[in-house]
Amino acid sequence: MQFARVACLRLLTTLITLIGVAVIVFIVVRVVPGNPIAMMLPPGATDADIERLKALYGLDKSIPQQFLIWFANVLHGDFGTSITTRQPVLGLVLGRLPATLELSIMALVMAVLLGGTLAVLGTRLRRTRAEAGIDIANGIGMSVPDFLWGLLLIVLFGVLWPVFQISGRVTPRLELPFTSQFYLFESILRLRFDLTRDLIGHMFMPALALALPLAAIIAQLLKQSLKETVNLDYAVLARTKGYPETSVILAEALPNAVLPTLTLIGVQFTFLIGGTVIVERLFSYEGLGNMAIDAVINRDLPLIQGIVILFALLFTLVNLAVDMTYAFLNPRLRHA
Amino acid sequence: MTEHPNRRTLLKLAGAGAAALTLPRAAGAQSADELTIAYNVNLPSWDPTVGPSGVNPTIQGIYQTVFDMFIHQKPDLSFEPGLLTEWGWNDDKTKVHMTVRDGVKWHDGSPFSAEDVVWSLERAGKEETGNPIQFVWKNLGNFKIDGNKIIADVLQFDPTIFKWMAFLTGYVLPKAYYEKVGAAGFEEKPVGTGPYMVDHYERNAFVRLKANPDYFGGKPDFETVTIKFVTDATSRVAEVESGNSDVTLEIPYEEYDRLIGGKLKGTCDTVSDIGMIFINDIDPMLDKNVRFAAVHSIDKELLVKRLLRGYGVPLDTLETPEYAAYDPTIKVPYDVEASVKALAESGYSPEKPVKFKIQTTRGFKPKDYEMIQAIVGMWRKVGIEAEIEVYEIAKHYELRAADQLAPAAFYNWGNAVGDPTTSTGFAMYGPSPHSVWDGQDLIDMINPLWGEKDEAKRIQGWKDVSRFIAENNLVIPLMQYAQPIVHREGISVTPHKSGALLPHLIKRA
Fold first, then answer.
1. Could you tell me the pTM of the whole model?
2. What pLDDT is stored for residue B488 in this prediction?
3. Structural domain of residue B220, as residue ranges?
4. Residues of the domain holding A230
5. A168–B205: do the CB atoms touch at under 8 Å?
6. Residue of B nearest to A159 (CA)
7. ipTM here
């Protein structure tokens, strides 16, 4: 009952957050300089032409009126029509969401594996030169932004040693049997590992570019926690019993050291999703981020609103999932 | 207590890392029948006649690959038959006549006819269609079809109507197919008569095209063309350098020089885009001496040579040599001494400079910000102190439409059709939403040209307008841009002055 009450409360706050985001985004995109009508004005357009275009796209009404109309439509599942693509916004953003989710999840997995490995190695090799090397690598990983990692990876693995694809999500000449937009997951489910390999070949560099800064943060925090934990009584006892150091770290210290890192991962994952905007653009990856930049450049107001609200929904859901996972893994909270 | 990893552990780790990277080499080489182009923009919509995409010059090359225009343009911008093989006015220019090409098929195999042409023109002229150039298309009406001949009434005379048939939104769409599938169905599976047919389209990613075997201009050289939408210039360079793409365009000039210095080939010819600075008729630009100095103290040759690495041509008017009203006798010389003298007449000097704001984009066009920085430096030497404001291109459009640009504002103007109305006309005619100079004398000069029926007189009239603008320093034309195109060995690319990279003009060398 307690859990259900908390879950309902979180869903309610999520809803309020989303409405707040919707209001702010709706107003902001309309008051910032640059409107879509000015961008599509043909040479020789008269004032009447401008008014006609405004009316055509519903921009001839006041902002509160526009918001009420838009919000009423949203309640019926209609997020409007994109000005540039002339397609329903909901279909467009939901169509691109799986690509961004797959990329983000792959980046997260890479960050956790890489960061976790470095943390364990750093703890295992503490007080050696190797630990200093890992610390330096972490420092570099954190200080270089994801798009710069992307450029570096393009040069390394796209041009000098062309192992991975530079752009896109899948090789254009392949015939795709997919029925959903979750290409990677579906290729695995269909046992089409040729396509899985191609998809990973496209996702690897953008995912790694997103993963490296997060991996460095995970590595640093987890190593710090591990170094504290390996000196606690139960770890010393295990060591006294004759367990190898690696087992002490992995079996005794890690489960207790991982909780603060988990919270951090949740927070950082939302930043990682935000990072997809630039990285997807750099790698011409057909996700939400790439679409968001086009929408902003073209001042496609309905599409900007749809994308931002979806990002906001993602962020709140990720935070919700992290809270739930934390509660599940933390025995003090679980048995409270 | 610390244990150190032994050599075996390290070798295992290294082996695991190597195994993880044993993915196949990125697919680069492909069959001789395939061509991959790393294109610089996304394609938002497949209907080339409505919405913002219709007036977006950067995607016209993709549209022209799938659809045909009423009238075509050769790579030098001269006109040639498209889906119309003949066109013209009657003697008093109250009617137009058009002859429709025989034997053309739509990509779905259905025959193309004069009905498609009339339907496309009527649809474009209706307000509810959302064609941004509706103000032009509405000037024709009462169409009559006789076989492959069409006659229509001129409801309002526009001397450029046939030029528009080779310009923005001037495409013929399939009447029967469009009416059957609707706008959404057409977006899903577009059908045209162009040299390539859409095989597969992934929004924001790529479009795969198949050669149209029945194309009236002959079957294209490559059976399959894939256009990847690679909007980042660095990634486009990497695409062509790694061999993942065969051709790319619009890359930095430095990269162009580097790439063609290696194993890649390329062209960097001028296109119809120009760089210019709008002068708004607000203080201090109402002072003719300030305008004179602002215009004559810019060393355009130096800008092209230093900033654009020599790729570009300095301009004296808003007309490039390919445009119909280009007049090589109009000169706006670089003259520092005269600029200083003019400013002195208004009481300004390097010690007591005239001050105003200049707006520019940064990264929208090659070296735009750097160019304005250089210009500001040149101005400083003669007695102009300009403050640079960087803005997004969207803000430029909004300010320009509202006539609220700063006294000077950088912009690039494209005019693929080469008519003076769509360059000097719309950029300098006060009532136009694209002009910020509102001088009545210039408006009076331009007014009669919109409806001038004598073509020679019309073009001469526009040349006179250009001369008037140059003599009164009402705008600052800078240069005609060049477009870098890089490609692998074994193919030849014919650049088009419009700036459109057309796959059917790419051949095996």
1. 0.86
2. 95
3. 28-67+194-264+488-509
4. 97-301
5. yes
6. B242
7. 0.81
